[in-house]
Each structure stands twice: as structure tokens, then as C-alpha cells.
Design goal:
By secondary structure, this protein is mainly alpha-helical. The protein is about 45% helix and about 5% strand. The strands form 2 sheets. The protein has a two-stranded antiparallel sheet with strand order 1-2. Helix 1 crosses helix 8 and helix 2 runs antiparallel to helix 4.
Length: about 240
């Protein structure tokens, strides 16, 4: 059963119900996908239940007894479960609110998935994501795809000039592929239509809609492929979205 059978009260068939996403930044779009993630929804419900129980026992901020709070085993997880060093309150403990946020890629108190625009309201601040170039070993097959490019560097020579030249070549190649329609510009606005369709499809499936029902709304689209792309964004790919201005 869907947690939010009518997410945000919106009808997934009606694009006007999603007009609130107009002008969204990458950070705001990323939240739209994460808040639809069933695992995040479940983890948030478990977290907030524990948080309310701790408030019941030790009071609410700013008047809570934090010394007692942080010594309660319910208030922390082992540091081994959280790779973010700035979360640690001890050598071996991480507060549950910081651990949950770090696990999903953000700072601040974990927002309720029901909050429509947590970044816009200042309730969520994404951690910096890093997606650097991948190293190819000699003889390894070059990945295919319009969004990928391969350059070779001579490690027997100084790298500074090579890196500067590579940057210019990649910028030219990127602009050319955008002009040719092979990729979308690396800006949130260029992806808005695709992402809006994606969250509508996720809402449709969460409400129990079949692929046939999706095809009735998007008869010219490969809805199975579009839904798969939306699920990849929901299940982790949203971190890449945060990089787009």
C-alpha cells in the first residue's frame, strides 16, 4: 500500500498540480525525488518516533536535558554506521538525526517527506556531492554514451598544461553536444520537463497506476524507460541533481 496514495494532494494525471516545481533549483528537484523514496519515508518514520520518545523523556529543545539525552542509547548510532566525521559527538557515537541526514546526503534535521519544499524553506542543506572522472586502465573498454567523453593524458609529462587543455576541449565538446541535442544543458531548468514527468510517474505508481494507465497519459513516451530513469533518481541519482545550478 502506498504511503502517500495522493502525494501532496496532487492528481498525477494533471500537470497543473505540479506547477509548484516551476523555477526549482537542482537542490529543490533533488528533494522531490528523495522524499518519494519509500526507504527514506520508512526510516524517517522510525526516526521521528524515537525522537518524540526522547522528547517525552528529556524535554524539547531548547529546554531539554541534553546530557541525559545524548547518553540514552536510542539517541545515537555507532560511528561506523556514518562516514561523515563532522557528525561525531564522541569517538564512537553519532547522533541519530545527523546519521540519518548524512546517510541520505544532507545536513540539518531530517525533513518530513510530507514537506513539499524543504530546501526552499531552509530545512535542508545538501552535503557537497562529488562525481569525478573515472580512471580507465590500459586496454579497458571505453564506456559509451553521449554524456561521456574520453581523453588521454601523458603521465610522463607535466599535467598542468594538459589539464588546462583538457578543460577547454571538454567545454567545447559539451556545448557542441548540447547544440546537437545529444545531451541537455547542465542546468536544472533544462531538465525540468523530464523531472516533472518523472515525479508524476512515481506518484502514479505509488497510487497503484499500471503502465497502461501511464501510456494513456503519455502515449508518445517509452513510459517503462522513463519510469526506470525516475526510480534511479529517487533511489540515489538525486545526489547528482544537487550539482546543477
Amino acid at each position: 500500500m502506498a504511503i502517500y496514495p495522493r502525494f501532496d494532494g496532487a492528481d498525477w494525471r494533471c500537470v497543473e498540480d505540479y506547477a509548484f516545481t516551476e523555477g526549482f533549483s537542482g537542490a529543490q528537484w533533488a528533494w522531490q525525488f528523495l522524499r518519494r523514496n519509500p526507504r527514506y519515508q520508512a526510516e524517517w518514520r522510525a526516526f521521528i518516533a524515537t525522537w518524540r520518545a526522547l522528547e517525552q523523556d528529556y524535554g524539547r529543545a531548547p529546554n531539554r536535558d541534553f546530557c541525559q539525552w545524548k547518553n540514552d542509547p536510542r539517541a545515537w548510532v555507532p560511528a561506523a554506521e556514518c562516514g561523515e566525521g563532522d557528525c561525531r559527538i564522541d569517538q564512537d557515537k553519532v547522533l541519530i538525526e545527523c546519521a540519518l541526514g548524512a546517510r541520505w546526503g544532507f545536513h540539518k534535521f531530517p525533513p518530513d517527506p510530507a514537506v513539499r519544499d524543504a530546501p526552499g524553506e531552509g530545512r535542508l542543506n545538501w552535503r557537497e556531492a562529488s562525481f569525478g572522472p573515472e580512471r580507465l586502465e590500459a586496454g579497458e573498454a571505453v564506456p559509451d554514451g553521449a554524456a561521456l567523453a574520453t581523453l588521454c593524458f601523458d603521465l610522463a609529462l607535466p599535467l598542468k598544461t594538459q589539464v588546462e587543455q583538457a578543460k577547454r576541449r571538454l567545454q567545447l565538446l559539451q556545448r557542441q553536444r548540447v547544440r546537437d541535442g545529444r545531451i541537455l544543458a547542465p542546468k536544472a531548468v533544462a531538465h525540468a520537463e523530464e523531472w516533472r514527468r518523472g515525479i508524476r510517474m512515481l506518484d502514479a505508481r505509488a497510487a497503484g497506476a499500471t503502465l497502461e494507465a501511464l501510456r494513456a497519459v503519455w502515449p508518445t513516451r517509452d513510459v517503462a524507460a522513463d519510469l526506470d530513469a525516475a526510480e534511479r533518481l529517487r533511489d540515489g541519482g538525486y545526489r547528482r541533481i544537487t550539482l546543477l545550478p
